[in-house]
Amino acid sequence: MSGLELLEYISALSIMGVLTYICIHDFRHLIIENWAIVALLGLYVLWSGLSGFPSVATDVFMAVLFFLLALVMWIFRAMGAGDVKLYFVLGLLMGMEWAIVFIVMLLVFSVLFWIGLKLSTRYKDTSNYIISRFRFFKAEGVLPYGVVMTLSAAPAILGRFFS
Q1: Each residue of 142-161: pLDDT tens digit?
Q2: 3-state per-residue secondary structure call for the chain
Q3: Has this prediction a pTM greater than 0.90?
Q4: What is the rounded CA–CA span in Å between residue 141 and residue 160?
Q5: Environment class of residue 43 by beta-carbon count within 10 Å: exposed (0-12), middle (13-18) or buried (19+)?
Q6: Range 31-39, long-range pairs (CB < 8 A, 24+ positions)
Q7: Nearest alpha carbon to residue 87 among 68, 111, 110, 104
Q8: How far apart are CA 136 and CA 8, in angstroms?
Q9: What pLDDT was estimated at residue 139?
Q10: 27-78 residue pLDDT tens
Q11: What gap in Å lies between CA 82 and CA 90, rounded to an integer?
């Protein structure tokens, strides 16, 4: 394994680490921190730069497309600003080739999250943190979109890195 390949693996692992952090932090606090978005952007530049920026034009196209779609949702107060910024970076990381995987997984995880919201009211045990959070989301009418987005993006990003 060459030094460049090792850096690619380290950047992929680092991206998965930041996505995991975003997922957990958004679930707990309903916020996606700016430093995490900047870290993902920097890791994209590192990874893409190691390969000579082969698909930067289509990556930016997907990022802008996802950003604009999310911006419309933000304008209508359907999602937070952190989610909009996250969509931009996820578009870069997935690129055009893997966006369909993300979209399919987004549908799957959204349905699973919705089922979790519905089932959370059936359980009376309030000591379970996850069930308590689902009840909170349902009662307040809020959703941690970052959770669904990061879980959906992980297979697409890993597929792109290791294809």
Answers
A1: 999 999 999 999 999 999 99
A2: CCHHHHHHHHHHHHHHHHHHHHHHHHHHHCCCCHHHHHHHHHHHHHHHHHCCCCCHHHHHHHHHHHHHHHHHHHHCCCCCHHHHHHHHHHHHHHCCCCHHHHHHHHHHHHHHHHHHHHHHCCCCCCCCHHHHHHHHHHHHCCCCHHHHHHHHHHHHHHHHHCC
A3: yes
A4: 34
A5: buried
A6: 31/80, 31/82, 32/80, 32/82, 32/83, 32/85, 32/86, 32/146, 33/82, 34/82, 34/85, 37/82, 37/85, 37/86, 37/88, 37/89, 39/14
A7: 68
A8: 39
A9: 93
A10: 999 999 999 999 999 999 999 998 888 999 999 999 999 999 999 999 999 9
A11: 12
pLDDT of 156 reads 97
Banded model confidence at residue 3, pLDDT cuts 50, 70, 90: confident
Q: What are phi and psi of 127, to 5 degrees?
A: -85, -15
CB 135: neighbour CB atoms within 10 A? 16
CA nearest 98: which of 55, 16, 156?
Answer: 156
Residue 60, Cβ neighbours under 10 Å: how many? Answer: 14
